[in-house]
Amino acid sequence: MPALDPAQGNKRTAPTSRRPNVPGYNPMNWRRYWLVLGALLLLNIVITSIIESATQAPSVTIPYNVFIAQVDAGNVLNITATGDSIIGTAKAAVSAGSGQPSAKTFSTQRPTFASDNLEAALLKNKVSILAEPPNPPPPLWETLLLGFGPSLLLVFGLIYLMRRSAALAGGGAGGILGRFGQSNARLYNAERPDTTFADVAGIDEVKAELVEIVDFLKKPEKYQRLGGTVPKGVLLIGAPGTGKTLLARAVAGEAAVPFFSISAAEFIEAIVGVGAARVRDLFQKARSAAPAIVFIDELDAVGRSRSTGARLGGNEEQEQTLNQILTEMDGFDPQQGVIVLAATNRADVLDAALLRPGRFDRRVTVPFPDRRGRLEILKIHTRHIPLGPDVDLGLSASLTAGMVGADLRNLANEAALAAARRDASVVAQIDFTNALEKVELGSERKLSLSAMDRERIAYHEAGHALLGLLQPGADPVRRVSIIPRGQSLGATVQSPVDDRFNYGEDYLRGRITGALGGRAAEQLVYGVVTTGAESDLRQVTAIARQMVVRYGMSPRVGVLSLADDDNAGQSLTLSRPYSEATAAIVDEEVRRISEECLRQGVALLTSNRDKLDALVHALLEHDTLEEAAILAVTGLTAPEPVPATVS
Ligand code: ADP
Ligand code: ZN
Ligand code: MG
After folding, report:
1. 83: phi > 0 → left, psi -120 to 50 → alpha, else beta; which?
2. Same-domain check for residues 433 and 486
3. What is the per-residue pLDDT across 549-599, written as a single tens digit (0 to 9) for each?
4. Which atom of ligand 1 is nearest to the CA of 238?
């Protein structure tokens, strides 16, 4: 499968992990609470047992016959009987036998079968007798303690925790609501603006748009004097990982103003009714620290259009939060020096109210970086990495069409890790190549493949590579590999010399033919195809369908764009702006194009069978072949790049 595909590169998602940043909510603090509670409980038990043992006189247990002997000897002062259990006090200390501990207080158990006349003996020796019911009710204090104690402990514990966290949140009186109502904005100190525009690369147009904001925050007087209008809100729109958060930070860093940021997704994950309170608090804090920046990340989480039915549950909460944001933005005067930046990757779903003048009236699109931009970003993220002499960041930049800043940072990091794993002192180009493959396809997998399977995979990948080479105008084949990675068993990496924005019909057909190269080779050599071609087919279908419905490249469908813009030809089945009959024609046309390309692929491979076999042998021997080796083995030259067509 051609792994790098500029046309499909726009669906990247950067993994983000976010934890609620509520003060006092941090797990460390909770652990402390539990430790304190546990320690208190333990102390309680220890103290109780000490008191118990201190208040009770030492006592011994004696056999019943010893007891009778003591009674007869007149040594017993008094006894208390509970059923057949007897405790008593003696004049002189008694013991169970010689050598046993002795004490004046003793206890004994009268056997139930005893038929002695104990009472008479006791009376005769003037022992005072107390009797208690066999199962005395526990004393009142014990009943109360056992009944209510645990609940009391819990209540007191909760009160304690609430007061603690309220104190932490600075809310004091607010109790638990005070805590959650506090905004979790992080104040970035004016003394330490750590991000600057120098940390942002490859999106110079966007930076230029934000320079004005920085200037306003730096010298608000200048703007106040002339009464110029400065936007209240700037909305940064771009795919995940394109650097929106980075830019917002850089604006604060450049202007050296406090940066209050919050993720709108966090508003709605908390307790109902606090989103609005948090917004109010956030803005209040920002105003008192002005000039300042308020940054609302993932604005679409609360700012979704109220008309779309897409909002399941939590509607009220989102609406309240959104309304509060709108109120705050209307309520403040831009001269106060607070500027609201917000980020979203779905500007199309935002509520129109947010985009009205006086709110986020300035919108800045953060684009995917082009090749030069990617190079600049790679340079930034390799600033602190020692690079070997063979490293060609320009090559890596051209191999990474469709990647965003976050991906490139990840790539640089993976390359550094790969070099460290080799115990190398500098990072080499091979580390970048490996890192790219890992980022694109996953880590290498240790699969024990049979010789048969390996050969089949080699033919499949060689088919892709050879067709990529044989077709004029195709993207250069950079690498072929039969090392299993992630979900795929092998890979053919093709990437354009430069980013393409327009595609000619020949180029697209070439892409389809190349994508079918694996299948074509398997069909030619083995006569049957395997499941390995599945993802290839998905790609083929996607390209062919776009040719038909978007680019008007099918004479039968004609020069029409049938795709509605939202679906971008991806989910045509969901909302099809054309009839069943046309749909049938589209399907036939997609099939026709694919089949023509497959036939052409098989024909090309048949007439170049020697090159195919040579490539397979080299692959089986080396596992991976780079561009130069591929050309050497096949004796071909890289096809002349056809300039991208301009429409
Ligand atoms: P977004 O908010 O658009 O999803 P981020 O700003 O969180 O993206 O980007 C994540 C990381 O990717 C940044 O911290 C930065 O290291 C890197 N990055 C993204 N875009 C760029 C860029 N244009 N220049 C330099 N680094 C970038
Ligand atoms: Zn394939
Ligand atoms: Mg972000």
Report:
1. left
2. no
3. 888 888 877 766 665 544 444 444 445 667 778 888 888 999 999 999 999
4. 3
Per the annotation, the verdict on 328 as an active-site residue is no
Mean pLDDT of the chain: 78
Tokens standing for residue 329 = 């933005």
- DSSP 3-state assignment of 296? strand
Residue 493: nearest ligand to its CA? Answer: 2
**What confidence tier does 524 reach under pLDDT thresholds 50, 70, 90?**
very high
Q: Is residue 195 part of a domain?
A: no
Q: Are residues 338 and 436 part of one domain?
A: no
Ligand 1 close to Cβ of residue 244 (< 6 A): yes
Report the alpha-carbon angle 342-348-349, nearest 5: 80
CA distances from 384 to 194, 416, 425, 515 (A): 16, 10, 13, 39
Distance CA 179, CA 163 (A): 10
Last residue of a domain, one of 102, 131, 160: 131
Per-residue pLDDT tens for 334-353? Answer: 667 888 899 988 877 777 87
Q: Is 343 in the pocket of ligand 1 (CB under 6 A)?
A: yes
Whether 245 lines ligand 1, by a CB cut-off of 6 Å, is: yes
Same domain, 245 and 293: yes
Q: Is 220 helix (H, G, I), strand (E, B) or coil?
A: helix
What is the pTM for the complete model shown? 0.58
Structural domain count of the chain: 5
Domain span including residue 41: 27-51+140-180
Residue 190 resides in a domain: no
CATH code (residue 71): 3.30.720.210
- Pick from 362, 332, 358: nearest CA to 347: 362
Confidence band, pLDDT 50/70/90 cuts, at residue 208: confident
Q: What is the CATH number of the domain that holds 259?
A: 3.40.50.300
Phi, psi of 233 (to 5 degrees): -135, 140
Q: How much distance in Å is there from the Cα of 154 to the middle of ligand 1?
A: 46
Assigned domain for 19 exists: no
How confident is the model at residue 311, as a pLDDT?
47
The response to whether residue 373 sits with its C-beta less than 6 Å from ligand 1 reads: no
Do residues 124 and 217 both lie within one domain?
no
More confident residue, 185 or 236: 236
Residue 34 pLDDT: 81
